[in-house]
Amino acid sequence: TKASKAEAARKAKEEEKLAKKALADKKKAEAKKKKAEEAAKKKEAAKKEAAKKKAATKKVATKKTATQKAVASKKK
Questions:
Q1: Each residue's pLDDT tens digit, 28-37
Q2: Could you give the CA distance from residue 67 to residue 8 in angstroms, rounded to a whole number?
Q3: N or C: which end of the chain has fewer CB within 10 A?
Q4: How many angstroms separate the Cα of 55 from the Cα of each of 17, 18, 69?
């Protein structure tokens, strides 16, 4: 009958709408996850860079100290 066909069409439309929404939600979730992963990578890279700088600073400081010691021993 006409009524049952209309009802079936309405249900099909509704299901399609829900499927589209689910797909959109899934894409949003994936994008959010990807963004979080990239942020974590950047944070890790920044941590490593800071550690490198700290190590380099430490080496320079050690070299200066060694040089200062050599100068001090020559003065004696």
A1: 999 999 999 9
A2: 88
A3: C
A4: 57, 55, 21
